[in-house]
Amino acid sequence: MNILVINCGSSSIKGQLVKMPEYDVVAKFSIGRVGKEDAHVSIKAKGKDDFFEVAPVRNHEKGIKSMLHLIFEGDGKLMDIKDVSAVGHRVVHGGDKMSDSVIADDNVLEYIESICDLAPLHNPAHLAGIEACKKLMPGVPQITVFDNGYHHELPKSVYTYAIPHEYAEKHNIRKFGFHGIAFRSMLDECKRILGDNLENKKIILLMLGSGTTANASFNGKSLEVSTGFTPLEGLIQSTRSGDTDPAVFTFLMKKEDLSPEDIDEVANKKSGWLGMSGISNDMREIYEAAKNGDERAQNAIDTVCHRIKKYIGAYSAVLGGLDILAFGGGVGEHAWYIREKVLENLEFLGIELNIDVNRNLKGEGLVTSSDSQAKVLVTKVDEEKVIAEDTFNLIRLN
After folding, report:
1. Is residue 19 classed exposed, middle or buried when 0-12, 13-18 and 19+ CB atoms within 10 A define those classes?
2. Residue 290: band (very low, low, confident or very high) from pLDDT cuts 50, 70, 90
3. Is 356 a catalytic residue?
């Protein structure tokens, strides 16, 4: 079965064409700078030369249309479009009603649209991608895979905010949590690397990419998660502040004469690694600046690591101990210096880091010593695989 996986961001489109159930990736594609005259279009396909061009892409529909043409009709044609059985879409926010992956009928799409204000940077783009695929691939089932679905069974004491009950009820204000698809991928990789079904294991997962989330997991269920009502809460992210006294923002609104829209921009797009360092939202650039003596860059790294360490301690308490700690995402996989600093002085949790292995690891694997009571490992994150598997299973059953 051939499945197209689509992940539409606010200004990007990326995805894969895969054969299932073997998860054979036929092609990977991406379009960056959607909405610009100089969008970046790239395709990497088996048996074909890599394709890259800079071209205008006005919106998601135009981008997906051009991508479908390149893959299914152009000189680089890989197969007939009629041979695609389904399209799987990542959707960041399913609210409290959508957790399991489902076929995107009109009721599902109406619901996703109704909660767009919960994820204004993501859900509208996902909807645009789904609608474009429906229009360009009529009759092909569209499947929605929800990023917060993994956290759907959080205990009530975990997802409840201490605000007036009537506001929480009226506006459905609660912790939802995100990066659920990534966490499902990380758990699968933990099983593969360790050769263990993870039954009764107390696990902390750290998804450290441009967006970051910490998760406490037991028997495949999410018990705690750092992101909340929106992705803003929790760990410090590339441009998001993470946990911050809300009074800071109301104070700034008064002192700087900022509107709610302005403060939303500050909290989500101008804070985090970028705001602290004043250098970049790319941890690699911040690290290079820190090595060259930049104090703000070093403080940004120290602060990011302190926040992660604090969550590890808190989630170990929630779980009643720690068996496995996994790092994933671009920073989690490649920034050995972040892992090393985070794990300093965590011997009381049974962690014995192998410094040489941690610094020289390429790819996945264990970074703790053989006598470490708790295992720390680095995993790859393959969200597309999870989406493809959910899509395949739904189509097979229907």
Report:
1. middle
2. very high
3. no
End-to-end alpha carbon distance in the chain: 14
Q: How far is CA 172 from CA 91, 97, 99, 157, 317, in A?
A: 19, 11, 16, 15, 28
Instruction: Using the structure block, give the residue that is written with the tokens 């379009």.
Output: 31
Q: Is 315 within 8 Å of 224 (Cβ atoms)?
A: yes
pTM of the model: 0.93
Residues in the chain: 398
Q: Measured between alpha carbons, how far is 352 from 35 in angstroms, rounded to an integer?
A: 48
Exactly one of 50, 75, 105, 147 is catalytic; name it: 147
Map out the domains of the chain with their CATH numbers.
2-146 (3.30.420.40), 196-378 (3.30.420.40)
**49-54 mean pLDDT:** 93
- For residue 124, how many C-alpha atoms fall within 13 Å in the half-sphere facing its CB? 9
Q: Angle 220-225-230 (CA atoms, 0-180°, nearest 5)?
A: 130
